[in-house]
Design goal:
This protein is mostly helical. The protein contains 2 helices and no strands. The protein has helices spanning 6-79, 98-116. α1 packs parallel to α2 (98-116).
Length: 117
């Protein structure tokens, strides 16, 4: 078979051009698809982060409220204390550190219960 004809060369070039065009189109679609997936992942991540922060804030508010309630209970029981001796004053800053405040208040309430027995 000798040298290919001009027609065969044009067809081969057209097929090669079409292949390059398809490859470019595929890469463009793939790039857009990956960007879309990344955008969705980013949106989901931001939504989860916002929900987590909201839950942390709510939990902290509940803990502060629990601490303040326990402080009020301790103040009431200390006022009603009829036992002998003096009770040490317990000061707690519930807003600054509610976990430590709850621990301190629980120990003070236990001490008051023991003193009342």
């Amino acid at each position: 078979m000798g040298r290919p004809s001009d027609f065969d060369t044009l067809i081969a070039r057209g097929v090669a051009d079409a292949d390059r065009w398809q490859a470019r189109r595929f890469r463009r679609l793939l790039r857009r698809g990956l960007l879309a997936v990344l955008a969705v992942l980013l949106a989901v991540g931001l939504a989860c982060g916002a929900a987590w922060h909201a839950r942390q804030a709510r939990d902290r508010r509940l803990q502060v409220a629990r601490c303040e309630t326990r402080a009020a209970l301790l103040a009431e029981r200390t006022r009603d204390y009829k036992g002998g001796g003096t009770l040490p004053e317990t000061r707690v800053d519930c807003a600054a550190d509610p976990e430590q405040g709850l621990g301190t208040l629980d120990r003070a309430l236990a001490r008051l219960e023991r003193a009342g027995d």
